[in-house]
Amino acid sequence: MFRREYRNPELKAIRFMREGGRPGLGAPWGVNARITIGDQHYEEVLQLDSWAGEQLPPEVLGDELAGVVVTYSDGASEVLNDNR
Questions:
Q1: Burial group, residue 13, by CB count within 10 angstroms (0-12, 13-18, 19+)
Q2: Residue 79 backbone phi and psi in degrees, to 5
Q3: Which residues, including other chains, have CB under 8 Å from residue 26's CB and lie 6 or more apart?
Q4: Cα-based distances in Å from 69 to 16, 23, 27
Q5: pLDDT tens digit string along 10-35?
Q6: How far apart are the first and last CA of the chain?
Q7: 7 within 8 A of 65, measured Cβ to Cβ
């Protein structure tokens, strides 16, 4: 969701810090992630339909997105390319 909704060509990496889950009764599913945009790192909580955390730089609409390195909590990684 985050990769499709937050459009910024400087988005370089998403690192999931642990497995996602529900922190309490009635709480939505979420996962802690470190987002790299340009040379800056941002701590975010990504949920199924939203995200929250540190203020991210503004989106840049219309620019083509580069591949984003996604590192999962188990250490596996892949590059996502999505210019939709």
A1: middle
A2: -105, 125
A3: none
A4: 11, 26, 28
A5: 999 999 998 888 877 777 888 999 99
A6: 13
A7: yes
What is the rounded CA–CA span in Å between residue 23 and residue 47? 12
Q: What is the 3-state secondary structure (H, E, C) of the chain?
A: CHHHHCCCCCEEEEEECCCCECCCCCCCCEEEEEEEECCEEEEEEEECCCEEECCCCCCCCCCCCCCEEEECCCCCEEEECCCC
26-68 pLDDT, tens per residue? 778 889 999 999 999 999 998 888 888 999 998 887 767 788 9
